[in-house]
Write a structure and sequence with these properties.
This protein is an alpha+beta fold. Bound molecules: flavin-adenine dinucleotide.
Length: 492
């Protein structure tokens, strides 16, 4: 009986901790430092590849709720984050070296965890007794990516992310934008049978999916531009500073997903024939098509996020905010997410995964982390938490389970396994993907707090209904170093 985990990042490390805490032996394969990735810099487990922030830490914020749920479920990532916390206002930010050091130490010292430093080039054999978790992240090595494609199907594995910026709806100036779809086409809001999230994401990712076109699948807010406004925007765009990119990012852009600055460098009017095309968009205030237009598409069910259609970009975030705020209607926009283009290996979750993070066609195999189709450090670790817990239960011959959809972790799992596969894109946790309240209080803050309060009550209920073995701690080691597993009490 044992769990094999491939990838010692945020998800794999959390999964290893959860499985070992349930008294199951874990073998964790991490290819660094034997085989480095293009962005990791150290040999530590759970290295943060970019920002040092785990984002908001309050319960009126969905990622704050996700973190609180993880704490209650005994997350190692959350414990290490607390112990390496640095001042960051309402956010949880960490000293990255200390954070990764604490995780590496905790797992290295755990009596049930063996860390093997090697690249796993093919998916290991798995069985109910010996489940396997693949948590190799956005930079999954080439050999393993090829194997994954053969398991999930080439069409369900993506290799690059071209992400458009997202703005907070309430910061869009409604006096300046107008609502319309190109040519007044009738709008297809939700694909029938596609689950609750049919209309939430844009088809901005690779493999033939066209980016930056109004595909008639939603309502749009249109930011009209005069010729003068376009000229000023264009000049600022071509002068903006691009983020440092890695060669793989630069070399292999998909023609249908070019960053806006690359398009702008191709010619003065390239954008006006691409994502800023005004044809078919008549501004009701002038009765005419504007010189250029930027379209904003609703990005979540709650309607509080709008993405800039076709505006994938790798301009540095400071410059990005400055340039995008030149778009009429976005002068005071707050960005929920900036645009970026980077390598990102992930599966089309809804076609491949169950809510338990098991591969539907092979339940002894789990996917976790970014490659399972979630986005972000915390979300990756949260999926690892559930995958590790369930893999351990499976190995012990017990029932696997999913969390209630009213919890943030449960909602994330539901999104990954039930979103519309036609336009699937990894998602951060947002209140927009959580089951709405029957009688929501008025006001966003109160509503969010009520969602969090319900989530934590439901989580506690779920935990109380599941007696689990307590984590084997170092104090409980027997004289020969073997862990003593204490049965019967809930693990928190
Ligand atoms: C350039 C870039 C910047 C990002 N910036 C942010 C950010 O600022 N904030 C944020 O929240 N998210 C960011 N992300 C997303 C981020 O990668 C994920 O949120 C998070 O790291 C995913 O965790 P993970 O465990 O799935 O993958 P990782 O943390 O990447 O861990 C995967 C591990 O698997 C190992 N591995 C890969 N292939 C193999 C193999 N075949 N055999 C053995 N080991 C293997 C890797 O070495 C790595 O250690 C960024 C991603 C990229 C690519």
């Amino acid at each position: 009986m044992g769990v094999r985990i491939v990838g010692g990042g945020l998800a794999g490390s959390e999964a290893a901790w959860q499985a070992a805490s349930r008294g199951v032996r874990v073998t964790l394969h991490e290819m660094r430092p034997v085989r480095p990735t293009a962005v990791h810099k150290t040999d530590r487990l759970a290295e943060l590849v970019c920002s040092n922030s785990f984002r908001g830490d309050k319960l009126d914020n969905a990622v704050g709720l996700l973190k609180e749920e993880m704490r209650r479920l005994g997350s190692l990532v959350m414990r290490a984050a607390e112990e390496s916390r640095v001042p960051a206002g309402a956010a949880l930010a960490v000293d990255r070296e200390r954070f990764a050091g604490l995780i590496t130490q905790a797992l290295s010292e755990h009596p049930l965890v063996t860390i093997v430093r090697e690249e796993v080039a093919s998916i290991p054999a798995s069985s109910d007794n010996e489940p396997v978790i693949i948590a190799t992240g956005p930079l999954t090595s080439d050999a393993l990516s090829a194997q994954l494609a053969s398991i999930v199907g080439q069409d369900h594995l993506y290799f690059y992310d071209a992400i458009s910026p997202i703005v907070l709806a309430e910061t869009i100036d409604r006096e300046k934008v107008f609502r319309a779809s190109r040519w007044d086409r009738s709008l297809r809001r939700t694909v029938k049978g596609a689950g609750v999230l049919g209309a939430t994401v844009q088809g901005a990712t690779v493999q033939g999916a066209a980016c930056g076109v109004d595909d008639g699948q939603g309502d749009y807010l249109n930011c009209p531009m005069t010729r003068d406004e376009y000229e000023r925007f264009y000049a600022a765009l071509v002068a903006a500073e691009s983020a440092t990119v890695h060669d793989f990012d630069r070399e292999r852009f998909f023609e249908g997903c070019l960053p806006i600055e690359v398009m702008a460098h191709r010619g003065h009017d390239t954008l006006r024939f691409g994502p800023m095309k005004p044809v078919g968009l008549v501004d009701p205030r002038t009765g005419r098509e504007p010189y250029a237009a930027v379209q904003l598409r609703q990005d979540n069910l709650a309607g509080d996020h709008f993405s800039l259609v076709g505006f994938q970009t790798q301009i540095k975030w400071g410059d990005q905010a400055r340039v995008l705020r030149m778009i009429p209607g976005l002068e005071n926009a707050e960005f929920v997410r900036f645009g970026m283009v980077h390598r990102n290996t992930y599966v089309n979750g809804p076609t491949v995964l169950a809510e338990t993070w098991q591969v539907r066609a092979r339940p002894s195999l789990f996917f976790a982390g970014q490659m399972s189709g979630v986005e972000g450090y915390v979300e990756s670790a949260a999926s690892g938490l559930l995958a590790g817990m369930n893999a351990a239960l499976l190995a012990r011959g017990e029932h696997v389970s999913a969390l209630p959809r009213t919890t943030a972790i449960g909602a994330l799992a539901y999104y990954v396994s039930h979103a519309n596969p036609a336009h699937y894109e990894p998602s951060n946790i947002t209140f927009g993907i959580m089951q709405p309240l029957d009688r929501p209080p008025k006001g966003k803050k109160l509503r969010n707090e009520a969602l969090s309060a319900r989530a934590l009550v439901d989580l506690e209920r779920w935990m109380a209904s599941r007696p689990e073995p307590q984590a084997a701690t170092r104090d409980e080691k027997s004289s020969n170093g073997e862990a003593v597993v204490v049965e019967g009490s809930a693990s928190r």
